[in-house]
Give the backbone structure.
Amino acid sequence: MNFSPAAGRRLMFPSGKTVVVESFVPAAPAPGEVLVETTRSLLSTGTETICYNRKFDPGTHWDHWVKYPFYPGYCAAGTVIATGDGVVGLKAGDRVAHRAGHRSHAVVKADECHLVPDGVSPDAAVWFPLAKIAGHGVRAADITLGDSIVVIGAGPIGQMTVRWTLACGAGKVIVLDLAEARLKMAASAGAVPLTASADQAAGPIQALLNGARPRIVIDTTGNAAVLRSAFALVADYGTVVLLGDTGSPGSQTLTGDVITRGLKLVGAHDMHNTPEWNNPASAAHFFEFVRGGRFSLAGLNTHHFRPEACTEAYTLATEDRLRTMGILFDWSDA
């Protein structure tokens, strides 16, 4: 039986550096759609703080994307409460994850909802979009068994990258960051933590690799200045994967290393879907790895907020980001 609630709530940016809770009336699901009541949504601290603070250059893809009113978020999990005509494979009561924003209810195409299996909590399920994005970077790296890899940045995308690289058979994964708490989270997944900025890490990395340089460096930071350092860290004929999306791409520059040492630069992005790696495929792999204990998320969710505390959440993500990891909005009975 179809059901559409009379009122819903969602987060909205009416302008830069401003977030509010807005009331809305959720639509009834059309044919091929389902209505999902949200349990949790995850704040993507990289993407969303760039949008919230308008921390991007004019003319960039960010500038073309962020128009007001802007509805943030793309990581959510909840329960199907109604289905449109023609929907098969989903029914009311099913737990799903999807790519809608921060809102109490979302109408989603049925084939864009991914069943969450038993043993995977809503707090874990909301991570699947970030795991999917990180997976694009790991696949672009073309990892072979035993590879040495450096991941720059131990934020949410960095944490997911560490876990995928190890699952793909990397030999030693070194992760760089200046936040000890974030490094401990990466170390708990099997990475070698290194407290250093990218521009000061060459010597310590080579010491960890017996004088060698890593064949692959993955930059997850979204900091335009880091790319130059990534070239200096990687081995001759190695690969640098640019996974973190900066709001100032014009500030990213090549160095002489690219041509003199035969380096390869590969970009990776959420939109680079293939038949092998897309939302359904990544969700299925992610949920199976989480349920089987191969992809631990223990300790990654550092903060829970009610939707009405959204200003506090975005302020925290902006001003004290090194203290955060998973910032969750709890929509239960919101």
Remarks:
- The two ends are 23 Å apart (CA to CA).
- The chain has a mean pLDDT of 96.
- The longest strand covers residues 33-43.
- The first helix runs from residue 45 to 52.
